[in-house]
Write a structure and sequence with these properties.
By secondary structure, the chain is α/β, with parallel strands linked by helices. The protein has helices at about 15-30, 45-50, 75-95, 115-120, 140, 150-165, 175-185, 215-220, 240-250, 270-275, 295-300, 320-325, 340-350, 360-370, 375-390, 395-410; strands at about 1-5, 35-40, 55-60, 60-65, 100-105, 125-130, 170, 195, 225-235, 255-265, 285, 305, 330-335, 350-355.
């Protein structure tokens, strides 16, 4: 089949969707499909920004990079300008592209799937799959960026209803996301086929018998031999850090327990500043490290922290869990019930699910793992089992193969 994937970011960019898109595209190319990726010239990493705007071959995939000014995401204006350039270039590219059997569109930038719809208007037999990573306008509404049910929000909802009428298949990350989208955009005149496929990490990147040397920062930051709770990834609007900071304050006199945050985002600096204001010397906030170093970071940690704000349930799905599970890190999840992380913990027993504000519950779980080596080891084994069974690329690719067969057959 001729298959196109649309997403603003692609490797070597550091964003999770860049690597997920590449993983799926290369898998489909290896199966013999003619795969094209329409992506941006720019990105958030320096490596991605150095890419030239051109069509090139990468691991059997035709990668068409749309020119953008590469302004990044330091402000809304910069992001909007990058989005506008990518929209225009993608619409033109999809109009000029020869007929595709299937177009898979992600959700960065919002509503870019309309470029796939435009392609279908001229190539009627093309099938459209929306691979939903985030929900717009719900995400910016709940983050306080858009006015709830304001003009911009209503326009985006109108465009979503038109989009969902024309989709051939919807892929979501968890049941909460399905429930949210169907409550607002379910087509009235037909059933929209839906699949739930969680995000993943490449199994080859995390072999079960691999031995990773701890990241050099573990020793440099004084974490060697400590019980280290690591948060690795974006510290954005959708995450809660107040519960963790309160727990860290209770535990600050315990010299054996530390909290390490590595990443970026809108909540990074405020979290670091609040930790400093409270004199929480057991909390360390560090910038992003290269993806190749993340196994080494996790090798030096004891367990992983993942958070999700209550009002973000269904709107977004944390993507940090899969690598944590692969590295046998028990997950301390602070957020609402019903998201993919909560589901994994309930299914595999690979950590603890704690509600936002339950500081005592979080402290108790940390102390239990720190003081009971048997429980810690059992949780570590459950984490790896969860990765091997459900959250690796081989499992996810097989599910996408089934979706493509279903869509193509229809």
């Amino acid at each position: 089949m001729r298959i196109t994937i649309i997403n603003q970011f692609y490797t070597p960019d550091i964003s999770p969707t860049a690597h997920l898109s590449a993983s799926l595209a290369e898998h489909l190319a290896k199966k013999g499909h003619d795969v094209t990726v329409v992506t941006s010239w720019g990105g958030y990493s320096e490596d991605a920004r150095a890419q030239k705007g051109a069509t090139e071959r990468e691991n059997g995939v035709r990668v068409k990079r749309i020119w953008t000014p590469k302004l990044g995401k330091s402000s809304h204006i910069r992001r909007i300008i990058d989005y506008a350039c990518f929209y225009a270039g993608t619409y033109i590219s999809m109009l000029l592209l020869k007929r595709q059997d299937v177009v898979i569109s992600l959700t960065t930038p919002p509503l870019i799937a309309w470029a796939a719809i435009i392609h279908k208007w001229f190539k009627r037999k093309t099938k459209i799959i929306l691979w939903n990573m985030d929900c717009y306008p719900e995400l910016p509404e709940r983050a306080g960026v858009f006015k709830m049910e304001g003009f911009v929000s209503k326009v985006l909802q109108f465009l979503n209803r038109g989009l969902f009428k024309r989709l051939d298949h919807l892929v979501c990350l968890d049941t909460a996301m399905v429930d949210l989208l169907m409550s607002r955009y379910k087509p009235k005149k037909r059933e929209l086929p839906i699949s739930i496929i969680p995000n993943w990490e490449d199994a080859d990147f995390f072999p079960a018998d691999a031995k990773h040397e701890p990241w050099e920062g573990i020793d440099r930051l004084g974490l060697t031999g400590k019980f280290t709770v690591v948060y690795l990834g974006n510290m954005g609007y959708g995450h809660d850090f107040a519960t963790m900071l309160d727990a860290a304050e209770i535990l600050k006199d315990n010299d054996d327990i530390r909290f390490l945050f590595i990443g970026g985002g809108k909540r990074k600096d405020p979290t670091a500043q609040e930790a400093e204001r409270r004199d929480l010397t057991n909390v360390i906030v560090h910038s992003y490290v290269d993806k190749s170093e993340t196994p080494n970071v996790m090798a030096g940690a004891t367990c992983a922290l993942i958070t999700l704000r209550d009002d973000m349930l269904g709107v977004m799905s944390p993507s940090k869990m899969h690598a944590n599970l692969a590295m046998r890190l028990p997950v301390l999840y602070v957020g609402p019930e019903g998201c993919n992380v909560d589901d994994a913990i309930k299914r595999f027993g690979c950590g603890s699910s704690i509600r936002i504000g339950d500081v005592e519950g979080l402290v108790n779980q940390i102390r239990t793992l720190a003081e009971n080596k048997d429980k810690l080891e059992a949780a570590r084994e459950s984490a790896r089992r969860a990765f091997d069974e459900s959250y690796n690329d081989q499992s996810a690719h097989a599910r996408f193969d089934e979706v493509l067969e279903q869509v193509a057959g229809a």
